[in-house]
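Appendix C reproduces, verbatim, an entry submitted by the partner laboratory led by Prof. M.T., so that reviewers can inspect both the input and the predicted structure.
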Amino acid sequence: MQLVNSCPDAVPVYRKLGFDPTGPEQEVNGIKFMRMSPVFSACCVATPPGK
């Protein structure tokens, strides 16, 4: 799974690209960011044959 760190202003852009925040906004050494991970819909998950 690909995780990204987004600056708070870029969160809407990452949401449009299919990412959702995985937790609250964080700050490290004065840099604010939100960890985001991709959202997978049912269309993206392979179903084994016969199920």
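Residues 17 and 38 are 8 Å apart (CA to CA). Additional entries are available on request from the coordinating office.
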